Amino acid sequence: MKILLIEDDEILVAQLTNYLVSQNYIVESVSNGQLVSDYVQATNYDLVLLDLRLPGEDGISLCRQLRQGGYGGAILLQTVEADSDYKVAGLDAGADDYIVKPFSLEELSARIRALLRRPQGITDPILQWGKLQLDPSLCQVSYGDRPITLSPKEYNLLELFMRNPQRVFNNAMLLERIWGFDETPGEETVRTHIKRLRQKLKQAGADAVIENIYGMGYRLKAPKAQPQNAAIAPPPNAAQAARQFATKAISQFQDIIFARLAILDQAATAPILSDELRLQAQQAAHKLAGALGMFGLSDGSTYSRQVETSLHPTADQPDRQQMGTLVAQIHQVLEQVLPDTPTFDRDLAGLGPAPPEGQVSTSGDRPRPASQLLVVSTNRVWIGEVERLASASLEIVFRESIAQAQAQLSACSPKAILLDTATLEPQIATLVPLGQWVENHPNIPVLVITRSDSFEERLQISRYLTCTFLPCTLEIEQVLAIVQDTLQRRHLSTAHLLAVDDDPIVLQRLEQQLPRWGIHVTTLEDPRRLWKTLLDLSPDVLLLDVDMPHLDGIQLCHIIRSDSRWMELPILFLTACQETNTIQRIFAVGGDDYLPKPFTEPELVTRIFNRLERRQNPRGASSLGDRLPSLLAEHAALAALERDLVLAQQYQQPYCLGMITWGLTASVDGSAPSAHRHPVLHEVVHSIKANLRRADIVTQFHPGTITVGLYGVGEQAAHRRFQHLLQPLSQNSWGQNGAAIEFWYHLVTAPEDGTTVLTLRQTLMERLPVGFKEPW
């Protein structure tokens, strides 16, 4: 079911969208009432959730316009007005129902379900087809006593058919009803989902549920015997689950909530309450009342509503003492769920009337301790030497087991991890959770000292953990020198990005996503402070939003490019506007690239790395140096592979990751082959890339291997492609003196073998044969 959310409060938009999506609804949002008619005309919405208090908009008139424009779906009003006349006006304008703010998520979900049932005349909450049951309140599907697990799209398809049992849907209609604007799959995607849905239903015993109507589309086939539906009430813990969902989410928006609270503090303690401050405080109280009610904080919502009422333009001058008491009570309510809630104090009057949008949020401003190295070993003598020889800039933390190390990682993240597996050999099988932690922190290096230098031992550890191996013969001084060198190279290679955007949600997303790719982020909400921040930080990349108050991104870019110090600085733009004129202006003032909103994490990271590599290698030189000159650098390849995998999952396309390995036979004269290593590999890689598509990603993650990412290629097609690729290579003689290379490959697919590039890589390493010998 597809819902259009019309709401201007970004907190409520995020909270409602997350909750409704978790209930398997498809949600699209708009904050400008002028765009509503365009959305409604572009697609069919099952329900419109309309806030009657939009800036500069009359919600009742907007509701009336929807009905006059021919919209026949359900309209659910959100209103803060408890007056019956106001509710009557909304219902007379064409609304089907209303819900008064603040409301609970479970009440909203129940009202939506009730409205969506009305067109089909269904009186029971459970949808049934014979023994097949679908419970919209719990998003559960079962056949008899057997539960059926469906993907969100499969669930949406089944629900659509069960709500419209006699209606025939063609591919175009299903694409419109089940997929959103930001998704552009083809009709093959519909057929694939229908096929998978049928298979899952058949496995549970529900055969022939969906039938093809030749030349028309699909519909729900009538069961042989349709039993009477029995009303099944939702479980008693449904309300509790919704409240837990809301309480957990509030911490994500505490900065926005605190900013609104600061305005109320200002209004309550300012010597003179100006008209401008009064209006700002009224708007802040209105949004706080709705948000706190949504998060289940009914007392805080009530206090905020009382503040809003006292600040209404038609009301008398508010009682400042009573208003201060109400604001202090809001503080007390928030302190119960947000420990960082600022203390209510008269000194807050000096903060100014606007939210603190000009503050710079950067982890770089926080004090940094010495680089922490987590050392895991049971050899106490060796540990004592490490501690004695470590430099003062390296803080050593010891743990004697992998389990203890895991507990340490849960408390804080070190700068690097050193494992002495020579003493931890019985614990190797317990590396799985540590490997999962490392996958989520790819910028933290892991160094492993093994008992021997055998490839079999290293392969066993690589199956659990992505790491760098150190020879067991190294002295402690050499090990610590390698650790320091690794940390230094990581520090130098870390990119520093400065992001300027007036949307705190976007900035928060950047701060959460980019650090795990090795990108240090500084965020700035006020574009007027950019110049000073730019001089202080000297970032490697600048990310600008196009539309911002006071100064837009295009103006800022023009000013920056006029200074010789910043002529080579990579500048990327974020924009929700994709008009040709805007894009032309971006490049005309010196922008290097732009990214349309909404954006995906892999796409953003790929574009950032592309700009950094072009800056470091202006003539296209490879960053791999002498290793494999014609392959993508590891971090760039990882971002590209992750981007393709996300797109494959989004558009339901097949995806394969393959690994080519090889071994060099002895030459005729018995000479060592290492002298011909680089020329041979260069020819091999050139031959492989020449026989692949330009879109295929080719890189090297491990010595003696080449990894290839294939977007849109199924497993059988990938096998044929690799066999065709390697056959001429195996027949060729590479190198001199009769030396030849033997090739073979291994293959994994998504999502069967993994849902991320890191898990797919780990599965590939696990499939390497035990007898595989590292070449060279």
What can you tell me about this protein's structure?
The protein has 776 residues and is an alpha/beta fold. It has six domains: 2-120, Rossmann fold; 127-220, Winged helix-like DNA-binding domain superfamily/Winged helix DNA-binding domain (Arc Repressor Mutant, subunit A, Orthogonal Bundle); 239-356, no CATH class; 371-492, 3-Layer(aba) Sandwich (Rossmann fold); 495-616, Rossmann fold (3-Layer(aba) Sandwich), CATH 3.40.50.2300; 636-767, Reverse transcriptase/Diguanylate cyclase domain (Alpha-Beta Plaits, 2-Layer Sandwich). The strands form six sheets. It has a six-stranded mixed β-sheet, with helices on both faces. Helix 1 links the parallel strand 1 and strand 2. Helix 10 crosses helix 11 (275-294), helix 12 packs antiparallel against helix 13 and helix 23 packs antiparallel against helix 24 (634-650). The two termini are 58 Å apart. Residues 120-124, 225-239, 346-369, 617-627, 666-678 and 771-776 have low confidence and may be disordered.
